[in-house]
TrEMBL record:
Enzyme kind, highest EC tier: translocase
Subcellular location: Mitochondrion inner membrane
GO biological process: mitochondrial electron transport, NADH to ubiquinone
One GO cellular component term noted in the UniProt record for this chain: mitochondrial inner membrane
Transmembrane stretches, start-end: 59-80, 92-112, 151-169, 190-216, 236-253, 274-293, 321-346
Superkingdom: Eukaryota
Catalyzed chemical reaction(s): a ubiquinone + NADH + 5 H(+)(in) = a ubiquinol + NAD(+) + 4 H(+)(out)
Enzyme Commission number(s) from the entry: 7.1.1.2
Protein name: NADH-ubiquinone oxidoreductase chain 2
Ranges for domain NADH dehydrogenase subunit 2 C-terminal: 289-342
Location of the NADH:quinone oxidoreductase/Mrp antiporter transmembrane domain: 23-285
Xref: PANTHER family: NADH-UBIQUINONE OXIDOREDUCTASE CHAIN 2 (PTHR46552)
Keywords: Electron transport, Membrane, Mitochondrion, Mitochondrion inner membrane, NAD, Respiratory chain, Translocase, Transmembrane, Transmembrane helix, Transport, Ubiquinone
Length: 348
C-alpha cells in the first residue's frame, strides 16, 4: 500500500477513536465510530485475496448494523428524555439497545460469531489492530453510560468468558484461537465494568500488551496454525522459548502478569457478593487455559519429523527479536510483583 494512503488511514483510525473519547454528544460519538470503521476497511482489504475481501464485507455489514442500532437507540433516548448527552441515559430501553449494539461492535458473546471468521481472513498486523485498537472506542462509551441494569452486563460477561473458552477448544487455526481469546478477555472486562471501571481499564491495558506480544511473535514466526508451531524451534529459538510463557500469561497462570487482572476481578466480584459469577468465570478460565497449554505443548514438547521439509527453515533468513516485542513480552511476563502498586493506583 502507498505510504501516504497508509498514513492517512492510520491517522483516520486515531482520529475516529479520539473523537469518540472526547465526545459527550451521541452524534459525535457515532461519527467517531463510523470514521474508525471506514478507516480500517481499506487496511483489511489491502491484500486482494478472496478470504480478505469476504472478511472485510462481513466486518462492514456487522459494523454498519451496530452503528445503525446505536443511532436509533440514541434518537429514541432523545425522543423519550430530551437528552443527547451520553451520560444521561436513564431510560432502560435505549440503554439496553445501546449496550447490545456496542456488544455487537466489539464481538461480545452471544453477538460474537463474526469475530473468528473475520479475524481468520486477515493478516496478523490488521488482526492485531482489530483485536486491540478497535475495541477502545466502544468500551469508552460503555464506561461513560454507566448502565443501571447490571444484569445484562453480567450476562454478557459470563457468556463471553464461557464461549471464549469453549469455542477455542475445537480450533487449529491460530487466528481463530486468538479471536476466541479476545472474546473471553472482553467478557472479564464487561463483568467487572459496572463495579470498578478503573479495573476494567487495567485489564484492557494488560490484554493489549499480551495480545501485541503474541501477534508479533506469530508474525515473526510465520505461524498461522498449530502445525507450523511445531517447526518454530528451527526458525526462531528465542521466540520459541518466549511464546509459551506469553500464552500461559494470556491464560492467567501465576506467577505471570495475566494472573493479576483475573485475581483482582474475582476479588472484586466476591466483595460485591457475586460469588457464583466469580466461580463460573474462574472455571471458564480453565477452558481457555487448556487450549493455551495445547499450543505451548505443540511448540516446546513435540519434535517435528526430521526430514528435508522439517529442517528447511534453517536455510531461511531468521527474523529479529525486535525491541517493541522485547518490551511488551517483559511486561507480559514480569508485572505480577507490582500488583500492590496497581491496587493502590486503582483505589487512589
Amino acid at each position: 500500500m502507498n505510504p501516504y494512503i497508509l498514513s492517512t488511514l492510520l491517522f483516520a483510525l486515531g482520529l475516529g477513536t479520539t473523537i469518540t473519547f472526547a465526545s459527550s454528544h451521541w452524534l459525535l460519538a457515532w461519527m467517531g465510530l463510523e470514521i474508525n470503521t471506514l478507516a480500517i476497511i481499506p487496511l483489511m482489504a489491502q491484500f486482494h485475496h478472496p478470504r480478505a475481501v469476504e472478511a472485510t464485507t462481513k466486518y462492514f455489514l456487522i459494523q454498519a448494523t451496530a452503528a445503525a442500532t446505536l443511532l436509533f437507540a440514541s434518537m429514541s433516548n432523545a425522543w423519550l428524555t430530551g437528552q443527547w448527552d451520553i451520560q444521561h441515559m436513564h431510560h432502560p430501553f435505549p440503554t439496553t439497545l445501546i449496550i447490545l449494539a456496542l456488544a455487537l461492535k466489539i464481538g461480545l458473546a452471544p453477538l460474537h460469531s463474526w469475530m473468528p471468521e473475520v479475524l481468520q481472513g486477515l493478516d496478523l498486523t490488521t488482526g492485531l489492530i482489530l483485536s486491540t485498537w478497535q475495541k477502545l472506542a466502544p468500551l469508552s462509551i460503555i464506561l461513560q453510560i454507566q448502565p443501571t441494569n447490571h444484569t445484562i452486563l453480567i450476562f454478557l460477561g459470563l457468556v463471553s468468558t464461557l464461549i471464549g473458552g469453549w469455542g477455542g477448544l475445537n480450533q487449529t487455526q491460530l487466528r481463530k484461537i486468538l479471536a476466541y481469546s479476545s472474546i473471553a478477555h472482553l467478557g472479564w472486562m464487561i463483568l467487572i465494568l459496572q463495579f470498578s471501571p478503573s479495573l476494567t481499564m487495567l485489564t484492557f491495558l494488560i490484554y493489549i500488551f499480551m495480545t501485541f506480544s503474541l501477534f508479533i511473535s506469530f508474525k515473526l514466526n510465520y505461524s498461522t496454525n498449530i502445525n507450523t508451531l511445531t517447526t518454530s524451534w528451527s526458525k526462531a529459538p528465542v521466540l520459541t522459548s518466549i511464546i509459551p510463557l506469553i500464552l500461559l500469561s494470556l491464560g492467567g497462570l501465576p506467577p505471570l502478569t495475566g494472573f493479576m487482572p483475573k485475581w483482582l476481578i474475582i476479588q472484586e466480584l466476591a466483595k460485591q457478593e457475586l460469588a457464583p459469577a466469580a466461580t463460573l468465570a474462574a472455571l471458564s478460565a480453565l477452558l481457555s487455559l487448556y487450549f493455551y497449554l495445547r499450543l505451548s505443548y505443540a511448540m516446546t514438547l513435540t519434535i517435528s519429523p526430521n526430514n528435508t521439509t522439517g529442517t528447511l527453515p534453517w536455510r531461511l533468513p531468521t527474523r529479529q527479536f525486535t525491541l517493541p516485542l522485547a518490551i511488551s513480552a517483559s511486561t507480559t511476563l514480569c508485572l505480577l510483583p507490582l500488583t500492590p502498586a496497581m491496587v493502590a493506583l486503582l483505589t487512589f
